[in-house]
Write a structure and sequence with these properties.
Elements lengths: L2 H17 L11 H11 L4 E5 L5 H9 L3 E6 L2 H14 L3 E5 L12 E7 L9 H11 E12 L25 E3 L11 E3 L3 H10 L2 E9 L21 E8 L7
Parallel strand pairs: 1-2, 1-4, 2-3, 4-5
Antiparallel strand pairs: 5-9, 6-7, 8-9
Helix pairs in contact: 1-4, 5-6
Length: 250
């Protein structure tokens, strides 16, 4: 594990131990996720969720039809808390400590690999990430990503107008999180364009089935109602890809 990733993991450990409170309320998939995953979840798939975070999505997936959900996270504190939460909810979820790449599961083990909602910003190598996602999906299975749009981090959070931050670039390599409302404040995030992400998935041998951008962010940090979130700009995207039946990997 490189120095930056190790520091980011420490930031998340500290956040869960001292300040971060998991979302309250009934876990549920977003409407766009439900629409895109409805047919897949109807088959009661085995789901692997790399970078599973607070585990709310895992409970939602289990309740929406997944046979089992295996969450993977590199924070031991997070894994402990999500295990406790899943048991309390009676959800068919289990959790393992692991990194991406390096998920401690066999090749082609998942009918569905589900990830996103703040996952890609922690990946220093988007191609290595895509290859690991492809490794986990069985032939005929799917990868689903619902993620912040890479342009989101460019928008200022002003309530009356939208500006592009002068200190960030859509084509930048990385940036430091300076939002006080974010749990891992001060952590290093990696910037990947939508084109780089899609190309990485294709190079890994997966077939893109659906790609869509949305104006609504999946999460409003600090509950803010920024002009940037009011329908004019991209703030999230969904990508659904399928592993070829012959198991080809690029």
């Amino acid at each position: 594990m490189d120095e930056v990733t190790r520091a980011n993991r420490t930031a998340w450990d500290n956040a869960y131990q001292h300040s971060y409170v998991a979302p309250t309320g009934e876990p549920a998939l977003l409407a766009a996720e439900h629409d895109l995953l409805r047919d897949i979840l109807a088959t009661r798939p085995m789901v692997v969720h790399p970078q599973s975070g607070n585990g709310q999505d895992d409970i939602a997936l289990a309740r929406a039809g997944a046979r089992t959900v295996i969450g993977i996270d590199y924070s031991a504190v997070t894994v402990r808390e999500t295990r406790r939460r899943a048991v309390a909810a009676g959800a068919a979820c289990c959790y393992l400590l692991g990194t991406v790449p390096g998920v401690p599961l066999a090749d082609s083990c998942a009918d569905l690999v589900y990830t996103g909602k703040g996952a890609l910003i922690w990946m220093p190598d988007i191609d290595a990430w895509a290859r690991e996602m492809a490794r986990l999906v069985r032939p005929g299975g799917h990868l689903f990503v619902y993620e912040s749009h890479p342009a989101t981090e460019l928008w200022t959070r002003e309530p009356d107008r939208v500006r592009i931050r002068p200190d960030r670039s859509y084509f930048g390599r990385s940036f430091v999180c300076d939002d006080d409302s974010f749990p891992a404040h001060g952590a290093v995030m990696w910037q990947w364009t939508l084109g780089r992400t899609v190309t990485a998935v294709v190079r890994a041998g997966l077939e893109i089935r659906h790609l869509e951008e949305y104006p609504e962010p999946f999460w409003r940090m600090g509950g803010i109602d920024s002009t940037a979130f009011q329908g004019r700009l991209p703030n999230s995207f969904a990508l659904l890809a399928r592993a070829t039946d012959d198991g080809l990997r690029g």
